[in-house]
Amino acid sequence: MSYAALRTVLFGPAGWAVFALATLASIAIYAARPDLVPHGTDVFFLASPVRSIVAATIAMLLLGFAHEGCHWLAARLEGVPASVTVSRRLYLLVLETDLTRLWSIPRRRRYAPLMVGIALDLFILLGAQLVLLGQPGNRAAAALAYLQVAVLIPQLFVFMRTDLYAVLATATGCLNLWRVTQLQVRTRLHLASAAHHAELTAAHQRDREVARWFSWVYLAGMAAAAWFFVVYFLPATVHLVSWLAHALAAADLGHPAFWEALGFGLLALSSRLATLYVAVRDLVRTRRNRH
Predict the structure, then answer these.
(1) Is residue 28 included in any domain, yes or no?
(2) Which of 56, 208, 230, 258 has its CA at a distance of 20 to 30 angstroms from the CA of residue 192?
């Protein structure tokens, strides 16, 4: 099958219809069977909580690669170069596909590459739901459903430049909504320099129009993210480091418990350490570009 034919099948009316049906089916299942709605305990699907977390972390990584791979493939089907990189959204580590060159093609052709990752997540969730309908006690399917819901809900956080943010920017006809929103926020908070004011004045009119209301969404989202960081993320990180230190100190070097605790601790902290590395890397790049 040629690229053109594959693009027609996946991104044409039939593909969008299947995506819509899968979305409605998933919502309908949870509405009809609220007992199947994922719970935090579902992630502990193995005999050992530590092994469950390790397995879930690896599964999230593989699912993330699959999600971004769909973005990459969809962009290539549209004839647009794309690349997958390790990035961050605030203090969270993410895999991210650079789709900026999509803005070189007509707007209607951008939606599929932007939405295809969410489509994959929804299809995987629906598959897990169908398994649970037939096998209510399937703990692996329950854990998979939990993981998929955990990655789908944050897509609604458009202030973090999620896939749905890109869809919103496309639908509103914006060219650089994120940057203009930042400039608008600086202006509202009286933190804008003369250069910032000049950049905002020179920005595309549509970006400035949408940023007037999107900046409030951005501010509310950033406030919520700051609250979550102080109340949950930072204390959880401190607790994890403390637990790891005590577990390693209490266990004998030759005992399996020592190595299990060390492996779990390093895996659990790896995303935080990688996020810190990416933040430092981005800061260095920004300073180099200024010079």
Answers:
(1) yes
(2) 230
Rounded Cα gap, residues 75 and 72, in angstroms? 5
DSSP state of 16: H
Please, which residues bridge with residue 85 across strands?
A: 96
Please tell me the total count of domains within the chain. 1
Number of helical H runs and strand E runs in the chain: 11, 2
Q: Is residue 164 part of a domain?
A: yes
> What distance in Å separates the CA atoms of residue 74 and residue 10, rounded to the nearest whole number?
9
Encoding tokens for residue 96? 């991210």
Separation CA 184–CA 178 (nearest Å)? 10
Contact 244, 265 (CB under 8 A): yes
Beta bridge partners, 88, equal: 93
Q: Taking the model in full, what pTM does it have? A: 0.84
DSSP state of 12: S
Q: Can you tell me the distance from the alpha carbon of 170 to that of 177, in angstroms, rounded to the nearest whole number?
A: 10
In a domain, 117, yes or no: yes
For the segment 162-199, what is each residue's pLDDT rounded down to a tens digit? 999 999 999 999 999 999 999 999 998 889 889 999 99
Q: Which of 214, 149, 138, 148 is nearest to 176 (CA)?
A: 214
Q: Residue 173: helix, strand or coil by DSSP?
A: coil
Strands 83-89 and 92-98, sheet pairing:
antiparallel
* 271 is a domain residue: no
* Residue 27 belongs to domain spanning: 3-171
